Amino acid sequence: MKIKYSILFILALFITSCYPTDTQMQWVYVEHLVWKYYNIVDIEAVVSGREGGTNKLITLTYLNDGSVKKSEYRALCIKHGDIGYNRYIRQYQKKLLSYSNADFTKVSIISDADFDESHLADSELGDLVLFEALSPYAYIKSGYKIGSPMQGISKLVSELEYEDLILLGHKNSLAELKFLSEPTLSKTHNITITMTSDDGRVFQDTIRVRWE
């Protein structure tokens, strides 16, 4: 299920918070859509609010230790099929097209407390949580032809497939996790989020969430 983003929202992804300088407005030729990959070292979860006034919203970001080497960058471009972009873009747009160097195969969400009768402590909560993210992978896969480079992903965590988890990390943001229901048993939970990449790396963070 794809998110329908407004034209204004899509345009906002391609502008900076201030007016670009003359240098930033210069046209530059790029061979790949993705300008840079960053080496992900960890993930970080933050409770960022209540969606709809009741359901918890968790923002998931990643930490990195810098951009990858040119050899890894080229390998990732080939892996993602990002090898024929070949067009001019504004200088400032390059920095907006940066992602993590991890493609994920699994997202796990577990609580240490009983959520409801069907989700007791240490059981998966993926069928209760909506995963929303942005990725250019579908755009690249289409030959850079469909709509905007930033395509929306909106699925239950339990329904995610590998292609949904490729090329995440736009502006260090991996995803937003929305709980679609409130717990009927314990109201306080230590939620552990684990993301496993296709090269075997495991990233994990635990966050305390309270429903009141």
Detailed description of the structure:
- The protein is mainly beta.
- The protein has a domain at 26-104 and 124-182.
- It is built from four helices and eleven strands; from the N terminus they run αβββαβαβββαββββ.
- The strands form three sheets. It has a six-stranded mixed beta sheet with strand order 5-2-3-9-7-8. Strands 6-10-11 form a three-stranded antiparallel beta sheet, with no helix packed on it.
- It is elongated, with a radius of gyration of 18 Å.
- The two termini are 31 Å apart.
- The relative contact order is 0.23.
- Residues 1-18 have low confidence and may be disordered.
Task: Show the helix and strand layout.
Elements: H1 7-12, E1 27-30, E2 36-51, E3 55-67, H2 70-79, E4 87-90, H3 91-94, E5 98-100, E6 104-111, E7 129-135, H4 137-141, E8 151-156, E9 173-179, E10 188-197, E11 202-210
Parallel strand pairs: 2-5
Antiparallel strand pairs: 1-4, 2-3, 3-9, 6-10, 7-8, 7-9, 10-11
Keywords for this entry:
six-stranded mixed sheet, three-stranded antiparallel sheet, elongated, 12% helix, 41% strand, single chain, disordered N terminus, 212 residues, 4 helices, mainly beta
Terminal CA distance:
31 Å
Strand order of the largest sheet: 5-2-3-9-7-8
Q: Measured on Cα atoms, how large is the radius of gyration?
A: 18 Å
Shape, per Cα inertia axes = elongated
Which secondary-structure class do the elements indicate?
Answer: mainly beta
Topology as a string of helices (H) and strands (E): HEEEHEHEEEHEEEE
Total helical segments: 4
Major sheet details: 6 strands, mixed
